[in-house]
């Protein structure tokens, strides 16, 4: 009987160990499943954030293009002023005034002397032959 009791006890111990391993494995699987779900939720949130950043980036790029397009004439004007070198400034303005006195309109002044449209309008109004009161 001792042998059968010893085998029964050993069987019970092995069964208890098997049950404990199964419970532990089930708990580990549950934790792994929860972690996987948590990671999937985080990945979905990251995807939404990346889409938002990409959208903002596209809109920012469009704004930059509009600004570059709007101010492209500034680069042309700077190049024109730099190409005139030492003749720029007062001499060019004096020439623009002379041209305005001889009837040149603001468009011609802007094109010839590299003035902005506002500057050319001002010179034409102040010194032009068609003064308005």
How would you sum up this structure, described in words?
With 133 residues, the protein is an all-alpha fold. The protein folds into 2 domains: 1-70; 73-127, no CATH class. Helix content is 85%, strand content 0%. It contains 5 helices and no strands. It has helices at residues 2-70, 72-84, 90-101, 106-113, 117-127. Helix 3 (90-101) runs antiparallel to helix 4 and helix 3 (90-101) packs across helix 5. The longest helix is centred in the N-terminal third of the chain and has 69 residues, at 2-70. The relative contact order is 0.05. The model has no long low-confidence stretch (mean pLDDT 85).
Radius of gyration: 42 Å
Order of helices and strands: HHHHH
Q: What average pLDDT do the residues reach?
A: 85
Portion of residues in beta strands equals: under 5%
* Main beta sheet strand tally, sense and closure: none
Any low-confidence stretches, pLDDT <50, length ≥5?
none
What's the total helix number? Answer: 5
Question: What is the β-strand count?
Answer: 0
Number of domains: 2
Which structural class is indicated by helix and strand composition?
A: mainly alpha
> In percent, how helical is the residue content?
over 70%
Task: Describe the global form.
Answer: rod-shaped
């Amino acid at each position: 009987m001792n042998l059968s009791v010893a085998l029964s006890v050993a069987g019970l111990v092995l069964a208890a160990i098997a049950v404990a391993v199964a419970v532990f494995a089930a708990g580990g699987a549950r934790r792994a499943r929860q972690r996987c779900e948590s990671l999937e939720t985080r990945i979905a949130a990251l995807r939404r954030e990346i889409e938002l950043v990409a959208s903002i980036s596209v809109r920012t790029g469009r704004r930059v293009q509009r600004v570059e397009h709007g101010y492209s004439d500034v680069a042309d004007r700077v190049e024109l002023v730099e190409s005139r070198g030492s003749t720029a400034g007062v001499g060019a303005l004096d020439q623009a005034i002379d041209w305005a006195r001889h009837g040149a309109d603001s468009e011609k002044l802007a094109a010839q002397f590299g003035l902005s449209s506002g500057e050319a309008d001002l010179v034409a109004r102040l010194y032009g032959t068609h003064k308005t009161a």
